[in-house]
Amino acid sequence: MTRSGQEYLEALRDGREIWLDGERVKDVTAHPAFRATAASFARIHDLAADPALRPVLVENGVHRAYAVPRSYEELVARRRAYKVCAEASFGFLGRTPDHMASGAAGFAAVPSVFTGEGFDGSEQALAFHRRLAEGDLHCAFTLTNPAEGAVRVVEERADGIVVRGAKTVGTGAVFADEILVGTIEPLAADDTEHAVTFAVPVDTPGLKLISRTSYEQQARSVFDQPLSSRYDENDALLVYADVFVPWERVLTYRDPATTAAIWWRTPAYLNFTHQSATRFWTKLEFLTGLAILITRSNGTDTLPAVTQAVGRLLGAVAQAKAFVLAAEASFEEVDGGRGGVRPGQEISFAQRIMAGELYPRAVQDIKLLAGSALIQLPAGGRDLLHPELGPLVRAYVRTPGDAAEDRIKLLKLAWDALGSEFAGRHEQYERFYQGAPHVYLTMQTWAGAAGDCEALARACLDGYDLETVK
User: Fold this and answer.
1) Alpha-carbon Rg of the chain, whole angstroms?
2) Domain 268-455: CATH superfamily, name plus number
3) Are 397 and 407 in contact (CB under 8 A)?
4) What's the pTM value of the predicted model, to 2 decimals?
5) In the predicted model, what is the mean pLDDT of residues 91-109?
């Protein structure tokens, strides 16, 4: 069953241990650092109740992201659901509930991968997928290890395990119902204490979430910071202080090979990429729309150089869209078809390269189109409302095409997307969204069609020899 936004918010009031700037946060739905973003996630849950959107978002009573696609058409249907969710935040919420939902569906497609030499987590993997789908739960995940003190098993009991340590970059974890903890990078064959995957509720005793600076809390108003005030999904350090995990929530255990394989031998990671590529496409659409509005407001939209720059941005949008459609069209069977289908691996992996390199260029291009207009802005909407300052601002900040209030509103939105601290986080986020470049570029060398490329070049070489020399 799908949940309403209000039901989602009520579930967040569970006593979870969130820390921000030395203060324990009692209620993320009420605290000024988190409440507006929590409300944004709630609105995404409410989308399923819209009669016009429900057929797109819901299949057999659960969110479509949880479905294991069996055909190209079902891949397309899932992407349409991703698109609706992405547009709700203009692409700025990267870890919406459908993200981990797609990963859980990947696990459920090939549960046999969870059967290792000494531990069988296949039933737990299926139960994890079923629990999230039936409860319409928002699950975050943490796969990145700190330089020291990564989560490890410190005790084994009859009823479960005890883990200790930390995980970093817990994006959206503050707003989640559960956290999936694992390791995606290869571990040494003898590093069994770190080779564990499990899922726990955020209110689990001993689990502390230490939040980074909240851009939402720093925002003066929605008018002044329209994105950071509502779509700051936050990132947190998660510390596990001897946390007990029941066996029924353990997916892999003391098995480095299986702990890594669940991401690469199931469709989980490619499902992630399908969802994130759809969100990235949506985000570029939004940024390009901003560029068009800014150039019109500046009165520069008909200049040849500006028209060409906008054309380049529109080309980038089409490129981002093309990767999504091509990954779907190049779909591959999973486990001989028994696990349905997944997006094509070669195109999906290549999308990571494109997105990490394209986003910073797009931001830079839009900044150039905006020019100094982004710098000389009134401090806030209060200036417009002030009885003495308001008339002055309205007289001197307007343009022939825009009244002062409309122009300031547009440029405040642009600065929040392009130049604010929130914007800087997003540029770095998109650069490393799918991992570090040295990782995904190396992976592309074996996932890409290197053999075909080499064969074509070799065919040309083989077509002539020294006898052609006269």
Assistant:
1) 24
2) Butyryl-CoA Dehydrogenase, subunit A, domain 3 (1.20.140.10)
3) yes
4) 0.95
5) 98
